[in-house]
From TrEMBL:
Organism this protein belongs to: Agromyces indicus
UniProt GO molecular function: oxidoreductase activity
Entry keyword set: Flavoprotein, FMN, Oxidoreductase
Name of this chain's protein: FMN reductase
PANTHER family associated with the record: FMN REDUCTASE (NADPH)
EC number: 1.5.1.-
Source organism superkingdom: Bacteria
Pfam families linked: FMN_red (PF03358)
Top-rank EC class of the record's enzyme: oxidoreductase
Span of domain NADPH-dependent FMN reductase-like: 5-155
């Protein structure tokens, strides 16, 4: 079995960033779970702040600069996406949304997604389910059931009163790894004989529509 390809996107703006820290923790647990199942993973981690100018240029011109295009190409052949954003004004960061806007929507079809978010207060955790999850669902991705939110106080180990941050990270990573293990997106995309339309359309003479 070929290695699974995982793209990790962190849209934190500061250095160091709790958003990147959460992304790294989610990635580490997901890779560990896959390895325990006998599956190797290739990970590409992307800091969106390093691509901010390229993303803006793409929005303005419709063309992606080379570094951004490389990330978009990797995402199109990925077996899984770990996406982590800070929460500003009760929703995802503008940079995060701008990145989603320059992705070819078809690139995310059937893509397992593990959602992470960071913020100052646990109240912002609701943004995962009312803002971020619907965004990926609309794009036909497959967000895992457990989204992981890390408030400032969570890093001290107290958790949310129900489940500690490490427990939530592991639960989300395990669900994500289970989906990644079963997906064959990268093999399908790289197959020169794969079809970009359902066979029924081709047999029915609708290939040109």
């Amino acid at each position: 079995m070929s290695a699974k390809r995982i793209v990790v996107v962190s849209s934190g703006l500061s250095t160091p960033s709790s958003t990147r820290q959460l992304a790294d923790r989610l990635t580490s647990d997901a890779v560990d779970v896959l390895r325990e199942r006998g599956v190797e993973a290739e990970v590409r981690t992307v800091e969106l702040r390093d691509l901010a100018h390229d993303i803006t240029n793409h929005l303005l011109t419709g063309f992606a600069p080379p570094k951004l295009q490389e990330v978009l190409d990797e995402l199109a052949t990925a077996d899984g996406l770990i996406a982590v954003t800070p929460i500003f004004s009760t929703s995802y960061a503008g940079l995060f949304k701008s990145f989603i806007d320059v992705i070819d929507p078809q690139s995310l079809t059937d893509l397992p997604v593990l959602i992470g978010a960071t913020g100052g207060t646990p109240r912002h955790s609701l943004a995962i389910d009312y803002a971020i999850r619907p965004l990926f669902t609309y794009l036909h991705a497959i967000p895992v059931t457990t989204g992981v939110f890390a408030a400032t106080g969570d890093w001290g180990g107290g958790g949310d009163g129900v489940r500690s941050l490490p427990e939530r990270i592991f639960r989300g990573a395990r669900e994500f790894a289970e989906l990644v293990e079963r997906t064959y997106r990268s093999e399908r995309v790289n197959d020169p004989f794969s079809l970009d339309r359902p066979m029924g359309h081709l047999l029915g003479g609708l290939a040109g529509e």
